[in-house]
Specification:
single chain, 586 residues, alpha/beta, seven-stranded antiparallel beta sheet
């Protein structure tokens, strides 16, 4: 079939087809071998016409091992042949203790395609493809292969799946049938369907940046307000003598700041009443009894205005209020984090609003009010239940609780996010990602507990947000750049890669590309991925559902992979219109 080499370019060999030789069309994308003296060079058939076969160089075979890249091109006298079955294993992976099956090769009679587990799961991965191309089934099959792999028992694995549609529950719910040591854990946002497995986040584990996301903060001033709010809620949560003193100290300072303004007494009274309407204690409310020398007054009576427009009891008022001011409390920092609720946080924000500096600064006060409105909407809204955890727990114990199931280790933890809106879902995925990142950074032995985050519909969450301006970083981009060394690995699943952060995609080392047709996505993939060629892009355009082009660090050469249907399959099939349209008879 193959004649002599006509000429060579940097990446291609042009081979003559002898006259009268029938051209086998199924040679397209097949691998061929150049036998040239003592060296073997692997190539792939890229194009065929009536007279010329074009073959792209892929690598060399040295000591029966495939090495990607070609340093020495074959000579014009080299002989070309289709690789034999024994040589297929050199490029599709060999069976060894650290390998697993991904799928089969449709080009080589369903020859198993294996990959190095470390090369695949110690690096970030992206799975792209149109709706219906087989992404969800491919991801489900990939993880099912992990747990059915006879070479490795992944007992200590931790796969966190953030599931936009609740598709993966069916694929993994019976994983313990494979091995009783394997367990699947499920969290849901559906409060009625499965109330016992509601996703709940301990809010005291959230820092300033997390609350900035939840409250949709927009300015650095609001970050300062959030910091103050978190400090106060931690102090108030102690519910001890110093907490009580701190409340009175804040109210007293706010009142004194009002009393020393040049407002009319009526305006001062109204401002003080407004403070007490939002922040009051036993010592500071309108009915509090204030003792003078030989007489008493209720606190409201101290603000009676005489005919001269003044407070007759201004001395008693000033003396009483100032007695609660303790400047040493301004530098007090709570020693430990305590349990608190959303209502406690709302109270702390109210106290933040009256603290010194906010009342007299209209811009800061307006931005604080914006946060207060958003926090109140969160407290009374449908999402509040997801932020109500029943008892205090530390970060380490919370992570441990996520991966435990009935006293056993859970390897797959699935979060069904289908009942919450995209804005809240984005905050949730960022919060959990940051929790896991902080946890892995604290480990005594780096990367000793790996976590794999699978983000379904990742284009909804992994975007170029305002986070960099506001917080100085985007947690997804930080994990993409730094997470690998701590054992925190991303797996992005998306039908619109063009909407995903460039930085995150650029850090992915492995790709499974199912069929994609949108020209913007195809152009974006070519632009963003340095190791993707025009040939790979063209290959994926004609792929069948469930078949992908796989390439990256885990693959010796880009491969067309046919993945088996997962068993059981995820709940990702289309609606059966014919069946639902028809009226059942009888």
């Amino acid at each position: 079939m193959f004649g002599k080499i006509v000429y060579l370019t940097d990446n291609l060999a042009h081979i003559e087809i002898p006259d009268g030789t029938p051209v086998a069309q199924n040679l397209m994308n097949m691998h061929v071998m150049f036998d040239d003296d003592n060296k073997k060079i692997l190539g792939e058939v890229e194009d065929i016409d009536k007279k010329i076969v074009k073959v792209r160089f892929l690598g060399e075979v040295v000591n029966n091992k495939f090495i990607p890249g070609v340093i020495r091109k074959p000579t014009l006298q080299a002989k070309l042949r289709v690789i034999n079955r024994d040589e297929v294993g050199l490029i599709v992976g060999e069976d060894n203790p650290g390998s697993m099956v991904l799928g089969v090769s449709p080009l080589y009679d369903d020859y198993p395609i294996r990959m190095d587990i470390n090369a695949l799961f110690s690096n970030h991965m992206a799975v792209f493809g149109n709706t219906g191309s087989g992404k969800s089934c491919g991801v489900a099959r990939l993880l099912q292969n992990v747990f059915t792999n006879p070479n490795v028992m992944p007992f200590k694995s931790n796969f966190f799946i953030f599931d936009a549609y609740g598709e993966y529950h069916n694929a993994f719910k019976d994983i313990n049938k494979i091995n009783p040591n394997y367990n699947f854990k499920f969290y849901t946002t559906n409060k009625t369907a499965d109330p016992n497995n509601i996703m709940r986040i301990p809010i005291w584990l959230l820092g300033r940046d997390d609350w900035a996301l939840l409250l949709e903060a927009e300015t650095h001033t609001q970050l300062t307000i959030i910091e103050r709010m978190l400090k106060l809620v931690t102090i108030f949560a102690s519910d001890d003598e110093i907490s009580h003193r701190y409340c009175n100290h804040i109210i007293a300072k706010a009142i004194m700041a009002i009393l020393f303004t040049n407002q009319t007494c009526a305006s001062k009274r109204n401002d003080v009443y407004a403070i007490l309407a939002n922040c009051s204690t036993e010592e500071f409310n309108l009915e509090t009894v204030v003792k003078g020398v030989g007489y008493t007054r209720k606190f409201r009576e101290l603000f009676v205005i005489d005919t001269a427009g003044q407070f007759p009891e201004s001395n008693l008022m000033t003396e009483y209020v100032s007695s609660f001011i303790d400047e040493k409390l301004d530098v007090y920092e709570p020693a430990v984090t305590k349990y608190f609720t959303l209502e406690d946080l709302e109270k702390a924000l109210s106290f933040t609003l009256i603290s010194e500096g906010l009342l007299r600064n209209d811009k800061m006060y307006d931005e604080a009010i914006t946060l207060k409105v958003r926090l109140h909407a969160l407290v009374i809204g449908e999402n509040s239940e997801y932020l109500r955890y029943p008892q205090f727990i530390t970060l380490e114990n919370y992570i441990a609780s996520l991966i435990s199931y009935n006293g056993k280790k859970a390897q797959i933890i699935n979060f069904n996010l289908e009942e919450i809106d995209d804005t809240f879902a984005k905050s949730v995925t960022k919060i959990y990602t940051k929790m896991l990142f902080d946890f892995t950074k604290r480990l005594n032995v780096r990367a000793s507990i790996p976590f794999h985050i699978f983000l379904e519909e990742s284009h909804r969450y992994v975007q170029a947000d305002n986070d960099k301006f506001l917080l100085g970083y985007n947690i997804f981009e930080r994990v993409a750049k730094e997470g690998r060394k701590y054992g925190l690995i991303f797996n992005l699943i998306s039908q619109r890669p063009v909407e995903i952060s460039d930085t995150v995609i650029s850090q992915c080392s492995n790709f499974l590309i199912f069929k994609m047709n949108h020209p913007r996505d195809l152009e974006y993939i070519k632009k963003m991925l340095p190791n993707i060629s025009e040939e790979i892009v063209e290959k994926q355009k004609t792929l069948q559902p469930g078949t992908c082009v796989a390439f990256g660090m885990a693959f010796k050469v880009p491969m067309i992979v046919k993945m088996q249907m997962p068993n059981p399959a995820p709940s990702s099939s289309n609606c059966n219109v014919v069946e639902t349209w028809q009226v059942k008879r009888g």
